[in-house]
Structure formats: C-alpha cells, structure tokens
Amino acid sequence: MSEALAQLAARLRLLRMEKKLTYVALERRSGLGHTTVSQALNGRKVPTEATLVSLAKALGADAGTLMVLRDRAAAEAAPVTARQPSDEDTAFEERYRDYIIERHSRLAIVGLDLHGPQAACWPLDTAYLSLELAVRRDGPEAFEGHGPGTVVERAEQALAGRQRTLVRGLAGSGKTTLLQWLAVIAARGNPPEPLAHLRGLIPFVLPLRTLDLRSALPSSHRFLEATRSALASSQPLGWADRVLAAGRGLILVDGIDEVPGHRREQTREWLRDLLAAYPRSYFMVTTRPSAVPERWLDGSGFTELTVRPMNRKDVMVFAERWHTAAGAGSALEERFKDAVRAQPALAQLATTPLMCALMCALHRDRHGHLPRSRTELYEAALAMLLVRRDDERGIEAPEGISLTYPEAVQLLQRLAYWLIRNGQAAMEEETALALVEEALPSMASVARQGNPEQVLRHLLTRSGLLRQPSADTIDFVHRTFQDYLGAKAAVEARDLGVLVGHAHDDQWEDVLRMAVAHARPTERATLLRRLVARGDRTAKHRTRLHLLAMACLEQATELDPEVRAAVEERGAMLLPPRSSREAEQLARVGPVVLGLLPGPEAADKDEAQAVIQTARAVGGDAALALLKRYRCVHAGAHPFLADAWSSFDEREFAAEILEHLPADCRIVVRNPEALKILPSLPQKTSIGFAGDFSADEILTAVDAGALQRLEVYQNTRLEELAFLRRLPEVQHFVLSGSPMVQDLGPIDRRPLTSLALWYPAGRLLGTLNELPELQSLSLGPPVPHFDADLLPHLPVLRTLSISSSSRSGRPFEGIPRLTGLSSLTIPAWGIPEPARVELTALPALSWLNILDQDAFRLDAQTPLPGIRELILTRPANLTTAEPIAKAFPGLRMLEITYNSKAPTLDLTPLAGTAGLRITVRNAHRVTGLDRFPPGAVTVSPRPRT
After folding, report:
1. Domain spanning 3-77 has what CATH number?
2. SS3 of 220-239
3. 431-485 per-position pLDDT tens digit
C-alpha cells in the first residue's frame, strides 16, 4: 500500500467513526456496494473519483481534500510510463548491473577460513540461505477473538509484493546477506516468482557504516560516489534521479544501528526525503532490533519484519553449504551436525549465520571438536584468527611485525573499548594510530618491531577482525567481537561504574554480559550488585536492568551466593511471565531468556501460557525443546502451544508437538506446507484455515467423519459453502474475512450448535431460515442495526454475541423476544437506558459481557438484578466498583479486563456482596483486596511478592 493510499484509507475510517456509521449504514448512504466501500476504507484499491465523491457526501466531508490524496495514490499506483531510457542510460545500466553482480555475488566470511587467499569469501549462490522473517499482524489482519498474531515466512514469501520494508535482526543474523542477495537477483533480472516485482529494478546498495557520517547523507546523484563505486564518475548526469523517479529503483539501506544514536533522527529525515522524492521506487532498510523503536518509520508505508533465529533445519542446511563451499568434506560435515545435535549449548549458539560460520570454521580447524560455552567459543575464534592461522600456515611476520596472542588482544581491546565508550561504529585512522601509540610504551617487544603505523597496518591485514571501509576510517568486521574485546578492556580498566552507567543502553547489553564473563569473582559480584541497585532506584529502566542481571548469571561461573540471591530475587519479580505483555517483554531479551523459563512442573496455568508465548516469540531449536516439555501437561496451555505452529518448521513442530495434543485442541493451518502435513496428523476434531484455501483443499486435508469444529479466516478465494454438506459432523462453524461468500444457504437447517460470522459475514444472516439446534450465535463487525426479527428461526438460542452495532437510536430492537437467552455480549452503547429496561424482560438472562465500556452508564437508574455473571471487556476509566454494585445487585461473578492505560481499581464497594468471585486483568493496581475473603479475588497478572 502506498503512503498516500494509506493516508486516504485512514482518513475515511476516521470520518466513519466520527459520524458513528456502521459499514452497512455507509453503504446505504453512499449507494455503494460492500466490496467497494471495504476496499476504499481498507486501502486495498484506489477508489474511483465517483466512488470518492459518493463517500465524501455520505460522510459530510470535503471531497476536494480527499481527492488530493486520491490523485496522489493513483499516481503512485500507476504503472511506470516514463520515457524509455536513452541509449547512454541503457549502456550504463548494463555496465552497472554487471558491476553489482560482480561486487555483491561473493560473501566475506570475516577471515574464518584457513585455506588459501580466496577462502575468505563464498559464492553468494552457494552461501545464501533463505531465513525466516516474522511480521506482526494487528487490527483487521488479526483473527477475531485471538488478538494480534505473528506470521513467520521464508524471506521470499515475507517480502512478496512489498514496496517498503524495515528488517530487524540481531548482529550476524544475515541482514546484510539478504540485501546483497536482493541486489544481485534484481541486477540479474531473475528473481524468484514471489519477488517478481523486483524484476527490472536497479539496485542501490547503501551500507551506512561505509558512508562518511560526518557530512550530509547522500542524495541520489551521490549514491555511487558515497559508496566508493568505481563507476561513480561514469554515470550519466541525472541518471539515478531518472531511475528512481520512474519507480525503477531498489534502495537497500543497511545498518541503521551502525549510525551513532544522535544521528539516527537525521537518518530518518534523509529516508523520508528520499521517499517523498521517489514514491514509486522500492525501499528496504535494516537495523538491529533495539536500535530504533517499533514503528520507527510509521506513516511512511513500511512493513516491519524481524529475522528469526536459525532453527535446526536451517543450521543443517547452512552447515552443508559451508562445508561444500569450503571443500571440507562430507565426513567433517556429518561430525559437525552430530556435535550440534548432541550439545544443546552449541545449538543455542548457532542461531545466526555468523556464529554458525564461526563454529563450522572452528570445528574444521580443531579437527572435529567444538568449544562448549560462548566465552570459550570467542576465545577459540580469537586464537584462530590472531595467531594460529599464520602459525599453522608457516607465515612469519609478513609486515615485519609478529604479535603474540595477548599483545594482539591488548591492542584490539583498546580500539574496541574506545568505539564502545564513544558510541561510534567506526573511528578515524588518526584516532586508531593515537590509541596504538599510547599503548606502545608499555609494550616494549611490540614497540621494537615497528612504529604505530606499521603495527596498525599489521592488525588490519592479519587479524581478520579489523577492516578499513574508507581510506581514513577503521572499524571491526563484526560488532560481536568488538563487544567481547571492549568488555575485557572495561574490566581490566576497572570501569565497572561506566559499565553499570550504560547498562540501560541496548548498545552496551552484550558488553555487560561479556564483562561478567571476563571479571574476577570479586569484580563480578561488584558489577552485578551495582546493576541490581541501579535497577532498584531507576523505575524507568528497572525491568531491563534486572533482566540483564539475570541474563548475566549465565556467564557467572563463580559468584558470591548473596549477590546471586539478590539477582534471582529481582528476577523472581519478572520471571516466570504471567501475561502476554510480560511474555513479549521477556522475549526481547533473546534466546538467553529461554534458560530462565521454568518447565511445566514448576509453572501454574497462567505462567505456562505466558512461557509458551515467550518461547514462541524467541523461536529456534531451544524454544521448541522447551515447548515439547509442555505438550502433555496444562490442558489450559494447549491452545497456546497449537497456535505456535506457524512460528517453527511446520513438519518438525507437527511431529514434536501437534501429534501429542488432544484431538479437540484447535489448530490453524496458515500455509501450503501446513496443509500438506495436516492429513498425516492424528485425528483432529477442531481445525481452522487461515488464508486462500479452496474447498477441495479443505476437504482433502480433514477427516470428514471426525471434524466437529471448522473455522475459515481471511479467505478471498472461497466463493460458496456447498462443501460443508460433505462434513456431516461439523457442529461449530466460524466464517470471517471471506468477502466472496454471498450465501449461507448450505448451512440452513444444519444441526449446528454454534455459529460465528465476522468481517463481513454478519451481513449474510438474511440468507438463513432456520437453525434448529443453534445454541450460540456470534456476530462481528460490521453488524447493521440489530433487530431480532431479522434473525432466522433459532428455537434453542441461549447465547448471543454482537461485538459492534450502530450507536444511534435504539440499536437493539426486539431483544425481549429472545426469551431463551441466558448469555449476552454487546458493546456498551448497545444498552442505553431504554434497552436496559428491555433486558429486564429476559427471564433467563444471567450472564452479560459488555465490550468497550466507554458510553454505558453503569449507574443508570434501572438495575439488572437478574445478572449473576458480568464481564467488562476493555472498560474505559472504570476506577471504582461502586456503579457495578448499584447496577447489578445480584452479582455472583465479575470479570474485568483492561486493555491499555489501565487505571487503579477500587473494589471496596463490592466487599459486602456474599459469595462474589472477582477476576481483574491488566489493572494498574487493585485496592480494597483486604476486604474480601481469601481466594475471592483473582488479580492477573498475579502480584509478585
């Protein structure tokens, strides 16, 4: 969706809400069809001028203002009609494409290979591994009743059709490799089918760490010059501008995290300027996860994707390709795979391409043996890179300099710590020389061998850890080694206060962990004690600091028991998680948090659910291993387990998890791979299909004689429901987001016991006559003005749920005619005072759920004494239970679930209600608890003591 189209759709939705119109009412006022209105308000298609005029009139809006956005959207969506490139442009583009292919078709492996001068690179075609990317689905894309979700797909599918993407990933996760691959396939003109939109585009690769960040970021005509391309002086005047203006450009911006923090806002403005100048071209930006906040480019049409950790299958494929590229032999490859499978600690380390490549190289270098811990792994890598590579190849002092391992490490530590302390990704060569010069007087054996320039040159050419991205700048090949060495320097300099003072900064997170590993026992205790104390007194950073201290315990091989107890005491306030919000917070710590999570035997139900959500968000083999432990216990956690299917390798997850879950545990098929697996699973009675699956595909995948619950979500392909006649045992049916279905006739008079119709299936009620056994009916937005007379004949209906309706007039007509209702869910504005009087006429009504209580006056005059069970979902500004006590004097069960900006709730007014059970979720604080008997009130997440 283009930026202008997104703005237009958002403006139309806002106008609809301001006018308090349902979709049906808007369709009626505008005289437009449902599909036309839906496409316009959801930004799926640029509306015609006539459509927009009709919508503006219906919404009482200025058509001229909307038309400006519509014209911009149409221009951005229009096919490129610019003039054909000139002969000069065409000739240069051919040279430039060849240059991109040659320049980016090989991957550096940071000096980890020991065999020959060409072994430091791999061919891209051999080395590229399609990693998994995750995108968070919110709003209309999330499944109703199940909240926002995360969809995980391989890179090609996740990027399919996207014009603007921001890719987040940890250090070494493969972000740069992904950009190189996209540049090469675009230059070659042969992208895979999901990325067909890249065919014919001209790639511009802009690694920010190589740019001169002291001056202004480059405009289009300086792209080649800024990246030091040999073709910069040959490009035709204005060529880049013509390419980008015509929508033929692919701008690949790598490494927002490599930009100093104080320059990132300037970088965002530079990006926005490029977007404004070239709205038709394609953009991809990469960054570390915590370098910029979520939705950093919100409003600019960017989709945020996150690189997932490599799973075991990815590691095995990577190992095969590495050994093939390095000529290491199949026997060594199999030994490496066996070692990773057998040692969970190693598998947990091999979650990024960088670390996996490092481990492959070390394994070969050590003749089939691998180190066990992260610290040992880095030590072994440094020994290999700094000393053993030259020693074992018989290379002695190639620049006249020969450094021992400690000498090289000391010098590199100085450089690394300066970069960390100054928040820089690179330093000027002059600064590096000064740091080396300061060190030489105390390193006599090194000083005798050469001057600072010679020593620095040796480190650049022989260490495999430093590089010179430009003539006058120096940086580390990878931040991982910079953090490890900088942490060692900080500990040796006794800068514990500096470390603690920067612990809230995400750029120092790994430095802190490595510092704990490097420190001596007394230093380690001091560091962690100070970290805990700072968290205690700094509310803003408390959670991050205390979780970081817990994560550091993994590196603390020897530690004062009192300090360990203090850290674990703070961790107990955060671990295990007890809510979705806490799970999301913990998942940001990364894979290390998995080792802090309890198994099922030590987790209560709410904790088990949140642990599963945390592991799902982290992903990877270690997460799957944890989830396997939950598959046979905590029945309340089974739905959370099943819902994680799309976040892991489908076949492995099915074999390890789904096969062991009860037959009635609901599972959702979201992609073709899962569809293939479904028939091989043990009999499942509750299945959802999310996506464009045909009726034949659904019928082939399920056991028609066993299926009892069927859910169909977001299916724009399905046109009719006749296939349901071949599923005789289905008693529960959900239809959502399937706009092509126009008739519910195939379910008429079927023995369904529950039916849910959401987005926009609720409008189809008129195609039904009778559902003789239906006990539960759920209708989601858009729901028209409700009238019980519009319902089909429902002789045994007991439960009715309507999640939205018109706010005007009397939105619920004829409710008293539904005399059998015992349970009712409606939005707050659905029961103003007149309707409340009508509710008292329902003799069996005892259960009431009120959604989004922003207009419902709980203290209205007419009480509802028959209500025994009350649920308030997402109440706004409810701070006291006093109006509840007045409106519902017969209450025996109360549930209140807040959403965001939850207030403090005082339950004291309900303290005198005998036999009342209360559950409060997500409140900021609950007061009056001491007035209730033990066990009468449940607060979730449970308070930590």
Report:
1. 1.10.260.40
2. HHHHHHHCCCCCHHHCCCCH
3. 999 999 999 999 999 888 889 998 988 888 667 678 777 778 888 877 778 999 9
Per-residue pLDDT tens over the stretch 399-410: 567 888 899 999
Residue 857: which pLDDT band, with cuts at 50, 70 and 90?
low
pLDDT at 44: 67
Q: Which of 760, 759, 735 is nearest to 747 (CA)?
A: 735
Q: What's the CA gap between 521 and 512, in Å, rounded?
A: 15
Statement: residue 178 has pLDDT above 90: yes
Angle at the Cα of 170 (from 272 to 152), degrees rounded to 5? 85
CA distance 99 to 228: 13
Answer whether the bond into residue 576 is a cis peptide, omega within 30°: yes
Residue 147's pLDDT is 40
Neighbours of 571 (CB within 10 A): 18
Q: Taking the CB of residue 827, how many other CB atoms lie within 10 A of it?
A: 25
What is the predicted pLDDT for the residue at 27? 78
pLDDT in tens, 223-260: 999 888 999 999 999 999 999 999 999 999 998 877 76
CA nearest neighbour of 412 among 354, 489, 490: 489
The CATH class that applies to domain 89-308 reads alpha beta
Backbone angles phi, psi at 616, to 5 degrees: -60, -45
> What letter does residue 793 receive in the DSSP assignment?
B
| Average pLDDT taken over every residue of the chain | 83
Q: What residue type is 694 in one-letter code?
A: S
> How far is the C-alpha of 167 from the C-alpha of 914, rounded, in Å?
55
19 Cβ partners below 8 Å, 6+ apart? Answer: 59, 60
Amino acid at 740: M
- The tokens for 574 are 């955060």
Cα separation, 286 vs 272, whole angstroms: 15
107 residue type, one letter: L
Can you spell out the DSSP letters for 138-167? Answer: -GGGSBTTTB-EEEEEEHHHHTTT-SEEEE
CA gap 512, 491 in Å, rounded: 10
CB-based contact 575:568 (threshold 8 Å): no
